[in-house]
Amino acid sequence: MEALRKESRYTYADYYKWDDGARYELIDGVVYLMSPAPSRAHQELLVNIAAKLHNFLNDKPCKVYPAPFDVRLNGDGDGDDTVVQPDIVVVCDKSKLDDKGCNGAPDMVIEILSPSSASRDKVLKFNRYLQAGVREYWIVEPGSRTVVTHTLETGRYVTNAYNETDAVPVSILEGCVINLSDVFADVDI
């Protein structure tokens, strides 16, 4: 990977060749090294949320995928210059799925903040998810035990904040509500 950093912009075709054991994301062709394995609390939250979504989606057309799972956000296949690995994605359009991951905007993205990625998740990825048309974007903040949801309405995100005792409706999945008391239960942060 070191030799490739001399180039200014990359695509998924470049990204797919990198086999040095590190995890990367590309955003607008710029390489971002992902931190080593997330914290135990991060992983517990990921499993708790993904399990709730998976159980709700049983026998439904939408599917949930936890990280690592490549999302070529623009739907440009190997030429895509934005490849992210959200913590959790929900995809309802099966035509976007292939053996490499998701080719196009998922219906829902959930990012669980880590100190090393918080600003990228809150600003850079927020804007890219909005531009790509991700219908629902959640940011889970372990330290404050809160969830901020962003729901796409007429080209803009409508934002709502929830604390650890709230029940959060999943707007893209009619009838799906996630109780944050269950998500944060027994997670030592």
Describe the structure.
By secondary structure, the protein is of the alpha+beta class. It has a domain at 38-69 and 85-184: tt1808, chain A, CATH 3.90.1570. 23% of the residues lie in helices and 31% in strands. It has helices at 12-17, 40-57, 118-132, 180-184, and strands at residues 24-27, 30-33, 63-66, 71-72, 83-84, 88-91, 97-98, 101-103, 108-112, 136-141, 146-153, 156-163, 167-169, 177-179. The strands form four sheets. Strands 3-6-9-10-11-12 form a six-stranded mixed sheet, with helices on both faces. Strand 13 (167-169) and strand 14 form a beta hairpin. The N and C termini lie far apart (34 Å).
Salient structural properties:
globular; six-stranded mixed β-sheet; tt1808, chain A; four-stranded mixed β-sheet; alpha+beta; 189 residues
